[in-house]
Amino acid sequence: MILVILKLLVVLFFLIMFIRRPRVAWGIGLLTVTTAVLLDTLLGTFNREELLAELGFFFYVISGWYLSGLTCS
Description:
Elements: H1 2-20, H2 24-45, H3 48-55, H4 57-72
Helix pairs in contact: 1-2, 2-4, 3-4
């Protein structure tokens, strides 16, 4: 539970800094941290080994698609 709170605090910090001073560096940091938290949550919710066994190669395709979609939008 403490780890989840720490993750949310880091995302909140980057969000506040980006709102206060909207610079590219804070925007990239916010996107990076948010993507890492969302991917960690996805892999924590669904076991990575089970997803890899079920989807095979498409697991990496979906993960790459997910990451590129979040960072490009």
